[in-house]
């Protein structure tokens, strides 16, 4: 017994107590009802009945006050949660078009606390370009479609733009009435951060593109300079042999042969580089990687068959298109498949399989992998694979991969190589961003 209670009992010379437990509806003891008497003794049967009635009433009162406290606590939690996550909630009764906004949602929409929110007020806040989205979603909800989830922008009276993510849930009452209960999250900060990140990414891509193009041209210039220098020396020496009083034709012929060989090499390099440029500047259009691969493999079919190999193409249906130069992208695929084919033939493996796979790696990127059942790439060669003029082939120029890299990077993509193929050989993977119109439509 608590001290004040004890004092009270002593002060009034109470001598007997009758305690009755107060039970919750679930049978738990949530209190005790005590009846004190001045004289020792039990309450009469009639009094006991009254006491048990009173205990029942007390149980209702205690449970209600506990529920109210719990409700208040969860309301506080909810409000705090909404405030922290910058989320508000709403209820839209479809039969009367009555809308109720939580106070957080009023703050997000910047509506005054005391005005009654209407559909017109909401429409006036939505960015004019996004009104069709709002109209479409409202039609969907009115037709009873559940779980609308979408992004929409608001435009504040001072011109500020806010980005919202909306989640709705349609409740169908037994009498046929519809209500839409929803949460709206203000994702402006996240969106701005994403935009800033995207900007930095594209600036970086630009820098690396310029750099990779620069490196490529520098090494091509260097590579052409070498045969040119030797053409010059051999040509001059040849002339001297011919200018002698007794021209040495054998020596001159030998030098001329070298001149022709060097000139041929220089011409070949120029030819490859011209191919890479696709006959001029980049011609950008919306292209489907699936089509590009199909065209490139048709072009290579004969070569593949005579070498006893096979190419399988696996493309996820309905891939978004990419913005790019058809000829250049075909060149990338052709270079990769030819390399794979050469690896298969040169190594003399029995099983000659090449697999090309295209899929979406996320909603913004398409990924293409070209892999083979060849011997794979020597680990020590991996870091130099994309360097211009790096080759392990006798007749190779070492231009296929650097050209592919430069094309992919000029399309804001990236290309990598490893030996992770399930077929046992090398795997080249490139990624390209999907075109904006395609990304918007999906
Ligand atoms: N699928 C592959 N399997 C194993 N090694 C490869 C594969 N693809 C490329 N390589 C290695 O990478 C090197 C560079 O390839 P790249 O295409 O740039 O030049 P290349 O094929 O040697 O000559 P070019 O393409 O100019 O005729 C190759 O010489 C080879 O060693
Ligand atoms: Mg090659």
Explained architecture:
- This is histidine kinase.
- It is an enzyme of class 2 (transferase).
- Its EC number is 2.7.13.3.
- The chain is an alpha+beta fold.
- The protein folds into 4 domains: about 5-80, GAF domain (Beta-Lactamase, 2-Layer Sandwich), CATH 3.30.450.40; about 85-190, Beta-Lactamase (2-Layer Sandwich); about 205-275, Orthogonal Bundle (Helix Hairpins), CATH 1.10.287; about 280-440, Heat Shock Protein 90 (2-Layer Sandwich).
- It contains 11 helices and 14 strands.
- Strands 4-3-7-6-5 form a 5-stranded antiparallel β-sheet. A 5-stranded mixed β-sheet has the order 9-11-12-14-13. A two-stranded antiparallel sheet has the order 1-2.
- Strand 3 (about 85-95) and strand 4 (about 100) form a beta hairpin.
- Helix 6 runs antiparallel to helix 10 (about 400-410), helix 8 (about 290-305) runs parallel beside helix 9 and helix 9 runs antiparallel to helix 10 (about 400-410).
- It is elongated.
- About 20% of the residues are buried.
- The model has no long low-confidence stretch (mean pLDDT about 85).
- Adenosine-5'-triphosphate binds next to helix 9 and helix 10.
CATH H-tier superfamily of the largest domain: Histidine kinase-like ATPase, C-terminal domain
How does CATH name the architecture of the largest domain? Answer: 2-Layer Sandwich
Strand order of the largest sheet: 4-3-7-6-5
Helix content: 40-55%
Number of beta-strand segments: 14
* Multimeric state: single chain
Report the top-level CATH class of the largest domain. Answer: Alpha Beta
What's the structural domain tally? 4
How would you sum up the major sheet? Answer: 5 strands, antiparallel
What small molecules are bound in this structure?
adenosine-5'-triphosphate, magnesium ion
Structural class: alpha+beta
């Amino acid at each position: 017994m608590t001290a004040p209670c004890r004092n009270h009992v002593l002060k009034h010379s109470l001598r007997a107590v009758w305690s009755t437990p107060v039970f919750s509806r679930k049978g738990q003891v949530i209190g005790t009802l005590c009846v004190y008497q001045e004289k020792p003794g039990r309450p009469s049967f009639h009094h006991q009945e009254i006491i048990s009635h009173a205990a029942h009433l007390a149980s209702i009162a205690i449970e209600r006050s506990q529920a109210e406290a719990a409700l208040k606590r969860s309301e506080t939690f909810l409000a705090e949660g909404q405030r922290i996550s910058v989320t508000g909630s709403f209820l839209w009764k479809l039969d009367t078009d009555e809308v109720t906004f939580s106070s957080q949602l009023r703050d997000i929409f910047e509506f005054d606390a005391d005005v009654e929110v209407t559909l017109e007020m909401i429409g006036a806040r939505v960015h004019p370009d996004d009104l069709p989205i709002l109209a479409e979603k409202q039609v969907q909800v009115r037709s009873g479609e559940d779980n609308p989830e979408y992004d929409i922008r608001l435009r504040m009276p001072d011109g500020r733009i806010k980005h919202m993510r909306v989640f709705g849930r349609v409740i169908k009452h037994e009498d046929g009435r519809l209500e839409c209960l929803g949460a709206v999250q203000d994702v402006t900060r996240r969106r701005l951060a994403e935009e800033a990140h995207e900007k930095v990414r594209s600036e970086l891509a630009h820098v690396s593109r310029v750099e990779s193009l620069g490196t490529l041209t520098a090494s091509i210039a260097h590579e052409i300079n070498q045969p040119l220098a030797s053409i010059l020396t051999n040509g001059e020496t040849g002339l001297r042999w011919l200018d002698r009083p007794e021209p040495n034709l054998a020596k001159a012929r030998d030098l001329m042969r070298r001149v022709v060989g060097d000139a041929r090499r220089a011409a070949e390099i120029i030819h490859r580089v011209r191919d890479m440029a696709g006959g001029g500047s980049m011609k950008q259009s919306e292209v489907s990687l699936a089509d590009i691969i199909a065209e490139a493999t048709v072009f290579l079919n004969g070569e593949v068959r005579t070498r006893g190999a096979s190419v399988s193409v696996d493309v996820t249906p309905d891939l978004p298109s990419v913005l790019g130069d058809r000829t250049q992208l075909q060149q990338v695929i052709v270079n990769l498949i030819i390399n794979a084919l050469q690896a298969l033939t040169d190594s003399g493996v029995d099983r000659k399989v090449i697999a090309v796979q295209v899929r979406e790696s996320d909603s913004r990127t398409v990924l293409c992998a070209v892999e083979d059942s060849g011997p794979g790439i020597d680990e020590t060669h991996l870091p130099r694979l994309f360097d211009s003029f790096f080759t392990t082939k006798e007749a190779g120029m070492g231009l296929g991969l650097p050209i592919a890299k430069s094309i992919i990077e000029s399309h804001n993509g990236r290309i990598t190589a490893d030996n992770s193929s399930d077929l046992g050989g090398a795997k080249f993977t490139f990624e390209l961003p999907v075109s904006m119109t395609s990304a918007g439509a999906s």
